[in-house]
Amino acid sequence: MIQARLLELSNKENLAGLSLREMGRQIGLPNESPQKIKHHLLQLQKKGFLTINRAKGMMDRSSSEPDWAKGLLKKARRLFSIPIIGTASCGPLTIFAEENFQGFLRVSSKLVGLSKPDGLFAIRADGSSMNRAEIDGKQIEDGDFVIVKKDESLPENNEMVLVIVDDRATIKRFIKDEKNAQIILKADSSYDYEPIHLHPDDKFFVNGKVVGVIKRLSE
């Protein structure tokens, strides 16, 4: 998400005029390490999305941005360009949430069921722990793209969310067990996956709520 947020910020601000700490603050990560912000700026430069000229003190969106990327963060009447931000576990909690900006998912707004792409990103599902979960009649299976709407508020009971726990990403159903003062991240699967039990004070972060599924092409 850091790279997508920095790219969005570059549409509004001259990044060269901001310190690394100020960039972190403006993308909603005031406590993020400046070195991590710098790392993601350099990754965007390597991928051709930013042009950084240290000699002239300039940092701007690249004019050589590939054609398939030009729709990023722009509102479209019928098609959205949604950034793909890595992979999330739909199995045991094993996949690290280190950002891996993989490109864009070009998708009809009708498949997403929203009129605007604001705050949307895509995660590729890994595993089968949510293969009984349905979004608009579509199950979340291994290899599918899960569409997430960024929302850091506490989810409603039983909502499907993307959660970061100890720097690992997982898609699960969010259960508030107030009676026992715990939060349960529950699988919704035809297989036997153990739920994840958390204390409300544990280190976890709700990155967004699942709003759609784009099915992989069946072979």
Walk me through what this model shows:
By secondary structure, the chain is an alpha+beta fold. It has two domains: 63 residues, Orthogonal Bundle (Arc Repressor Mutant, subunit A); 146 residues, Umud Fragment, subunit A. Strands 4-3-5-8-13-9-10-11-12 form a nine-stranded mixed beta sheet. Strands 1-2 form a two-stranded antiparallel ribbon. The chain has a two-stranded antiparallel sheet with strand order 6-7. It starts with a helix and ends in a 5-residue tail after the last strand.
Approximate helicity band: 10-25%
The CATH homologous superfamily of the largest domain is called: Umud Fragment, subunit A
**Helix/strand order, N-terminal first:** HHHEEEEHEEEEEEEEE
| Strand segment count | 13
How many helices does DSSP assign? 4
Unreliable spans are 63-77
Strand content: 35-45%
Radius of gyration: 18 Å
Q: How do you describe this structure in short?
A:
This protein has 219 residues and is an alpha+beta fold. It is built from four helices and 13 strands.
